[in-house]
Amino acid sequence: METLDYIIETIQTLVNIPSPSGFTKKVMEFVREEAEGFGYSCEMSQKGGLISTVEGRERETIGLSAHVDTLGAMVRSIDSNGTLRFTMVGGYTMHSVEGSYCKVHTRDGQVYTGTILIKSSSVHSYDDAKTMERTDRNMLVRIDEMVESREDVLALGIDSGDYISFDAEFEYTKNGFIKSRHLDDKASVAVILGMLKEMSENKLTPKNRIKILISNYEEVGFGASWIPEDIKEILAVDMGAMGDDLNGSEYKVSICAKDSTGPYDYDMTNRLIDLAKENKIDFVVDIFPHYGSDVSAALRGGHDIKGALIGQGVHSSHGMERTHIKGLENTLKLIKAYIELK
Ligand SMILES: [Zn+2]
Predict the structure, then answer these.
(1) 56 C-alpha to ligand 1 centroid (Å)
(2) 219 CA from centroid of ligand 1 (Å)
(3) Contact 191, 104 (CB under 8 A)
(4) What are the chain's domains?
(5) pLDDT of 170-217, one tens digit each?
(6) 43 within 8 A of 199, measured Cβ to Cβ
(7) DSSP strand E in the chain: where?
(8) Cα of 68 to ligand 1 centre, how many Å?
(9) Residues 288-339: pLDDT tens digits?
């Protein structure tokens, strides 16, 4: 299978495995099986992140990261009428999840389907259906069960603290658009797996040893706060922000010079820009005004490292996201140039 076909297929698989931050065991198993299948060894960190090692031609160790956790929610309480109130996992607007199909995952492994709704959910009945403020206090989960009371819901095994995942609604269009929730950052995880596939099939090795960190708490800010001590520099692969005055595009790879956590390493960012130019990769240099990455988490975790951030542009990020196969291809090319495959 061609690498890009594999990447698209893998995105589809990944987005359909529910994995809000901290609920990532199942999705990690999938990533681990893929990486091991290509012949790369894997280990888990205590907090459930995956570290896969690729031996290089030289002894220096660099890091590559992407996160497999997504936005989601958790049951906050059960109302007397049998609907659920929820608390957010990660940062998003209520408008972006209103109407979304979801799943409630009980701690004993049962899964119930439902829908995220505003309390005044029908124009036929509520005067304030249009105007009710979209805040978490005014939102609810309607589960697809015949429940009328809090007790009915408890009897199903649902309780406060159960995870809620949002259905992805993946679609791949004929002209190369990938529409889905959770492209942040499962698209990048798939790109990295695609790269491993290519390396394994063509017996290519990178210049330096690479420790690939697939993190599982990025959306809540402490994804890669710990990284293996031998990593001297790390490249985070995460979605490129788009919109307003930003340069980002679904067809290009963004090289982020600064986000809201601060500037990325000057020399490393310059090197990535040079590599993109030399290899005729379609790229933009950009500023992400409301953004933090696994590099920010690692720096805040106290690591003395150089860090940079790249990724395909994702439209309407943390909402109904979309990217394009060209953006994935440009990101893959830039990672390959960065690790100096031979
Ligand atoms: Zn992300």
Answers:
(1) 27
(2) 6
(3) no
(4) 3-70+182-339 (3.40.630.10), 72-166 (2.40.30.40)
(5) 999 999 999 999 999 999 999 999 999 999 999 999 999 999 999 999
(6) no
(7) 41-44, 50-54, 61-67, 72-78, 84-89, 101-105, 111-118, 139-143, 163-166, 171-172, 177-179, 209-215, 233-237, 253-259, 262-263, 283-288, 306-312, 322-324
(8) 9
(9) 999 999 999 999 999 999 999 999 999 999 999 999 999 999 999 999 999 9
Q: What is the rounded CA–CA span in Å between residue 207 and residue 205?
A: 7
pLDDT tens for 25-78 read: 999 999 999 999 999 999 999 999 999 999 999 989 999 999 999 999 999 999
How does strand 61-67 pair with strand 209-215? parallel
Question: 211 forms bridges with which residues in the sheet?
Answer: 53, 63
Q: Return the C-alpha torsion angle 252, 254, 255, 260, nearest 10.
A: 170
Ligand 1 centroid – CA 71 distance (Å): 9
Query: 218, 233, 250, 321: which one is catalytic?
Result: 218
Q: Please give the average per-residue pLDDT across 211-227, as a whole number.
A: 96
Active site residue 250: no
User: Would you tell me the crossing angle of helices 325-339 and 3-15 to the nearest 10 degrees?
Assistant: 110
82: its two tokens = 């049998």
109 alpha carbon – ligand 1 mean position (Å): 27
Half-sphere exposure of 216 (CA within 13 A, CB side): 19
